[in-house]
Amino acid sequence: MLLSSTNRTAPVGAQRSRISNRARGSGSSPLLLAIFLILVVAATTFIFVARLYPAPPPISRDAVLVDRQYNLTLYVTGVVFLLAQLSLAYVVVRFRDRGQKARFVRGNVGLEILWTSLTLFVFVALGVLGRQAWADVRFTPPASGAIRVEGTTSQFVYAFRYPGKDGKFGRLDPRFVNAPAGNPLGIDPSDPAGRDDVVVSELIVPAERPVELLLRSEDVVHNFFVRELRLQQDAMPGLVIPVRFTADHIGDYEIVCTQLCGLGHYKMHSLLRVVSQSEFEAFLNRQATAP
Amino acid sequence: MSSNPSASSAVEARSGARPGIFRRYVFSTDHKIIGLQYFFLSLAAVTIGVFLSLGMRFHLVWPAARLPFVTGGIMTPEQYLALVTMHGTIMVFFVLTTAPQSAFGNYLLPLQIGARDMAFPRLNMLSFWLTLVAFLVTLSAFLVPGGAPISGWTAYPPLSGMGEITGPGEGAGQSLWIAGILIFCVGSLLGSINFISTTIDLRAPGMTLTRLPLTVWAWFVTAILSLLAFAVLFAGGILLALDRVAGTSFFLPAGLVVSGELQMHGGGSPLLWQHLFWFFGHPEVYIAILPGMGVVSHILANFSRKPVFGYRAMVLALCAIGLLGFLVWGHHMFVSGMNPYSSLTFSILTLSIGVPSAVKTFNWLGTLWGGKLQFQTPMLFALGFISFFVTGGLSGIFLAQPALDTSLHATYYVVAHFHIVMGVAAIFGIFAATYYWFPKMFGRKMNKTLGQLHFWLTFAGVYAIFMPMHFVGIAGGIRRYADASGASYLVSLQPLHVFMTIAAFITAAAQLAFFYNFFWSLRQGEPASANPWDATSLEWATASPPPSDNFAGQFPRVYRAPYEYSLPAAPQDFFPQHLPSEQDAPSSKGRSC
Amino acid sequence: MLASTVAESIVARRQTAAKTVRILSLGVAGFAVLCALVVVLTASRTAAQGCAQCYQSAAASGVAGRAALRHGILILLVPAISLFLAILSLLCRRRNPARPAPVGKFSERMAGASSNSVR
């Protein structure tokens, strides 16, 4: 049965709110909510400002550009976060039910246009500004003289191949893959270019020299991620995907796999070792003379 | 539940006999019963899903501990990944897609538009049973040799495309997972057709588009998304199944060597799966959140005693989010090897979705501004939704830029982001809806003190769980890692993990307040009138719970916009939609689309 | 006379609704063009050399593969967006539910929801 007006003395359609006075303003809820929101904002801001859990320092110029864009985004979103949560805190306290009548407002077209265009502008501007950091890494072809290394991922190891003195990679054929026999990548034995290829489990590169890393995968989708380079790329079976970087600081940096690749996913890691030019040449020579 | 479902009245009319329990409560075509069936299904699902996540959180912090439900005692990495996969699958499909849309939408849509039932009641019943079967089939992956799949809810091939050789659980477990998802897709598709037809064709006289509650708009847009997105997932799932059992190679390139064995596939692309999956996957997250947005608008208006600020803008924003949601899937694939130019286009489009989302947030604040705020439990959860939606939405701004995503992809930052928007905000929408419509569904109110306790513990708890997670991600903590024994820097993040795990257990325990409140109130709750919240929409114009045909033969006619609270010229506080008035308040003349 | 003014207002509202849908679709199309323009016009200098990643990838997987994926994006997008807008405009065209329900066995059960309503 449809309910008609419960209050016979009022005009048809009229309803008085029967929510009890006890429920009005609901006691401490608004104040508690406001305090909590302020706490969340304060704690979050503190952790960011105090850099309690930062990303490790960048080691390349591209990484520095990425960090600049990250900081810009952090400032903008931080301000919005602060304003939004604190507005919510303010509103719930200021307009809690203290017996007042609500202001009947359907909307405000001017305000809608204003905040829509402001938001659109801010977000698109962020996107456009962030374009440069992406373009510099992804649209730039490798510099001449870049050191070419091929990175092959498989369950659950990395293998890095250098072309050796002839500067050419030997042809790969999956039919020759035989890790126990010392040919994990399947280098075709009939290809002379492959005889001097160097295959190691760590990525060793000289500092301040451009590197082109050709990523591939033997089985499932893997990934190559070095935090300090701010560089991450999936290794897609069936594709050879080049990434390029120039590491400016000598040191050892962890390479981790971030794309779920099986039960050993969490154990799949390697090392990017950025060394001096002389050490790099020594490494290549060592490998060339090794049996 | 005291009334006969509509199926029984048809049966009665024909045979004169009252149908049995089975017809009334199990194989019912009454949208209210079906809505409740979906609700209880998702309640079971969320319990299992939370249980799985507690297992995950425990293992991350104490990997060597012996656990009671784990085969073999100590959890292995593959068991951890099985938990990851099934937690994601169950939560996304059987909780976040089911509860907001199929449960609440089915129950309330016909009521809110003044209809007797959905457009296709028998199809509706079929949809539910398909969803239940899908749930059971998916769960059965735990029980087969090899266990549940380990490829994540995203199931990327080749890991998921070649059977047991890529890992444990990838044999029968993955096949059952695919079967369950395919069945779920069909149920979802049929349900969407019902929602769309019902909304277009069965509205009561006077229920023009600008008089639709925002919940109805949200369910409508969500149904369109559901129709189009699940169709693509269905196709992708079929292709994946064919790759696994029929020797095809849609997603498998040539030359794959798995554990030393050369595989005889060729010509396929793993990227194709990613495109198909995320073309579904991104609209899917809007399917999860849009109904919650409609519910929040609805509840905010009720408990601020004001109309929704900018009703038309809210409708346009819902449609814009829905439409734009189809154009952004590539932001899940920035580092996948996809064309980098495409990445920039997807990035700009993704950032643009922030605009209608921000508009909705501003309008919610505008609804609260100048209101007469009453902090009943549904209102608390609606306010919590806003806070979490802001937080989660803003972390998305980082992920939407490929230059930044390069460092955050597949870290715990992403996990924090989607948990806050989906695992918290959408869940808060479900809680708000439950507390709000419980009186209508069961004729009793839930206990207010327990409700408030539930809110405070959960609100604090989920911030405690997921805010630190951002920092784990920024520092390089990688997701789907079974423990921190791989790369050496991971150990330094363990204190954060311990904190999050403890917070997770406490928050999960706090949900007992909800369960106790819910089941206790079913029997012992304070009896509720037809309109305990003094609301205006049509579902409050009929008894609590409603009779089998919803309005006992007297179907309403609609005279007013949906949120006529506190009209200025009138002393009364609200105007229900179905009641005309001799004296119209100044600006309340119905403006139709 | 009342019927004709009602009919007129229905027609007027229908035209507004159709206009709204048209504006919406134009808006979306215009926006997509804007995005494309933004990307193209802010191109960095070296982009003119082409994307080395693309060339490498094309070499590895075949030009046909890349073209297929490009076509695939359109095949996914065009039907989905069209259907979305079509369903929305269907809603707008049927926005006034005062018309009586069509007669038929199934619809007789549903007829209680519209023309038989007592108020």
List segments of chain C where confidence is low: pLDDT < 50 over at least 5 consecutive residues.
44-50, 100-119
Uncertain spans of chain B: 1-13, 583-593
Number of helices, where a helix is a run of at least 4 consecutive DSSP H or I residues of chain B: 16
Strand order within the widest beta sheet of chain B: 1-2
Radius of gyration of chain B: 24 Å
Q: Biggest sheet of chain B, in brief? A: 2 strands, antiparallel
Please, what is the CATH homologous superfamily of chain B?
Answer: Cytochrome c oxidase-like, subunit I domain
What percentage of amino acids of chain B are in beta strands? under 5%
- CATH class label of chain B: Mainly Alpha
Q: What is the helix tally of chain C? A: 4
Structural class of chain B: mainly alpha
Please give the share of residues in helix of chain C: over 70%
The CATH architecture of chain B would be Up-down Bundle
Largest sheet properties of chain C: none
Which structural class do the helices and strands of chain C define? mainly alpha
Shape of chain C: elongated
Order of helices and strands of chain C: HHHH
Number of domains of chain B: 1
Describe this structure in words.
The complex is a heterotrimer of chains A (291), B (593) and C (119). Chain A has 291 residues and is α+β, with helices and mostly antiparallel strands. Chain A folds into 2 domains: 26-96 and 109-137, no CATH class; 142-289, Immunoglobulin-like (Sandwich). Helices cover 33% and strands 20% of the residues of chain A. Chain A has 5 helices and 10 strands, in the order ααααββββββββββα. Chain A has helices at 29-49, 61-94, 109-129, 131-138, 277-289, and strands at 147-154, 157-162, 198-200, 203-206, 210-217, 222-226, 231-235, 241-246, 251-256, 269-275. In chain A, the strands form 3 sheets. Chain A has a 5-stranded mixed sheet. In chain A, a hairpin with a 2-residue loop joins strand 1 and strand 2. The longest helix of chain A has 34 residues, at 61-94. The radius of gyration of chain A is 30 Å and the shape is elongated. Chain B has helices at 6-15, 21-26, 31-61, 77-96, 98-113, 121-139, 172-201, 214-245, 270-304, 311-324, 340-368, 377-399, 402-408, 412-442, 448-474, 494-524, and strands spanning 257-258, 261-262. In chain B, helix 11 runs antiparallel to helix 12. Chain B has a single domain (30-251, 270-548), classed as Cytochrome c oxidase-like, subunit I domain (Cytochrome C Oxidase, Chain A, Up-down Bundle). In chain B, strands 1-2 form a two-stranded antiparallel ribbon. In chain B, 61% of the residues lie in helices and 1% in strands. With 119 residues, chain C is mostly helical. Chain C has helices at 2-41, 52-61, 63-93, 105-111. In chain C, helix 1 (2-41) packs antiparallel against helix 3 and helix 2 packs across helix 3 (63-93). The longest helix of chain C is centred in the N-terminal third of the chain and has 40 residues, at 2-41. Chains in contact: A-B, A-C, B-C. At the A-B interface, helix 1, helix 2, helix 3, helix 4 and strand 7 of A face helix 4, strand 1, helix 9, helix 10 and helix 11 of B.
